[in-house]
Specification:
globular, 9 strands
Length: 340
């Protein structure tokens, strides 16, 4: 089976600036194994993670409200803006792919908000969180999966038949499960979502998208149980967020064949110099804590920045990609470097 992220470096999603061609050229050039379709939230509404969903969902209109995004009755101005921005990003990726001389095959990653983060971020027409309407959550998951299937097919066509990997961003998943989200008013309470329900909804998106899916959760509580019980093929998390309680879950995932995408460098300019040796040392510590031999660990792990790079300087954004790329190559070529 072809590895999904193992042995590769990639980015999580967002990028500084507003120029899609410059961003695409940088990402395709720096990440030859698994480049990603960047998000440029600096362009405003419709370019951020939730706003981009307006261009991906099928038959599920989204509009803006005074507090964010909400469901709408028909295709809105913001949905047309989001679609236009996405089209520009796709044109830039296709151009960069061709200029780089990448032939048929290869792989590319796209990102979208996961169903639970999206449901927690959208409002219904009356102002309540969409999360409170479980029927609407199911409809949203189905729409997202269908939209991602079409999106992945378009990306593959533009990139010479490349394998498309889908990353679902779920920064709010742990809060949704724990019932920590507040309502839009003091009278509105949001109950916790049981694990089987969380898994079933996530799997609806995975099945409909017909793609290999990475679950990306950058919260302090890594949802290893969700990754284990669901149909996702890989789990992305921030190395700095790993607690001792997560170790057993991460080990179980690796044992079961789920790959890990480790966020190994910070998302903003570090206060001290950070290089490949530093990344390999941190990864070696993780492999030791998980009690995996270096060669086994290296064969099942990929690298990325800890999260999106929209808040980074352009210099650090490029350096972050270069660092994880070089560290991934070094780890794949010589796993014994993890023991130094």
């Amino acid at each position: 089976m072809t590895p999904l992220v193992a042995g590769h470096a990639t980015g999580i999603g967002s990028w500084p600036g507003t120029d899609p061609r410059e961003a695409a050229a940088t990402v395709v050039g720096e990440l030859p194994g698994l480049p990603h379709l960047v998000e440029l939230p600096g362009r405003g509404l419709g370019a951020d993670t939730i706003g981009r969903a307006a261009a991906l969902l099928t038959d599920f209109p989204i509009d803006t409200s005074t507090t964010g995004y909400r469901t709408g009755a028909r295709r809105s101005v913001i949905a047309r803006r989001a679609a236009g921005l996405l089209s520009a990003d796709l044109d830039a990726l296709e151009e960069a792919w061709e200029i780089a001389g990448k032939g048929p095959g290869g792989a590319v990653k796209v990102q979208a908000p996961g169903p639970w983060t999206l449901a927690a971020s959208l409002e219904l027409a009356g102002g309540a969180r969409l999360l409170l309407d479980r029927g609407a959550v199911r409809d949203l998951a189905d729409s997202l999966g269908d939209g991602l299937a079409s999106h992945a097919a378009d990306v593959s066509r533009r990139c010479g038949g490349a394998r498309v990997v889908v990353q679902l961003d779920e920064p709010l998943l742990t809060d949704v499960r724990a019932g920590r989200l507040t309502g839009r008013s003091r009278l509105e309470s949001i109950p916790a979502v049981a694990t089987p329900v969380a898994v079933e909804t996530l799997d609806r998106v995975v099945a409909a998208s017909a793609a290999d899916v990475i679950l990306h959760a950058c919260s302090a509580e890594v949802p290893t149980d969700i990754a284990h019980e669901s149909r996702v093929a890989a789990l992305a998390f921030d190395l700095e967020s790993v607690r001792t309680a997560s170790l057993d879950g991460l080990g179980t995932l690796l044992d079961g064949g789920t790959e890990l995408l480790v966020g190994a460098v910070p998302t903003t300019d570090p206060q001290r110099p950070l290089g490949v040796d530093d990344v390999l040392r941190d990864l070696g510590r993780l492999a030791h804590r998980l009690q995996f031999a270096p060669e086994v660990f290296a064969a099942r792990v990929g690298l990325a920045p800890a999260c999106g790079l929209a808040g980074a300087s352009p210099q650090w954004a490029r350096r972050a990609l270069t660092t994880v790329r070089d560290a991934a190559r070094a780890m794949a070529d010589d796993p014994s470097l993890l023991t130094r």
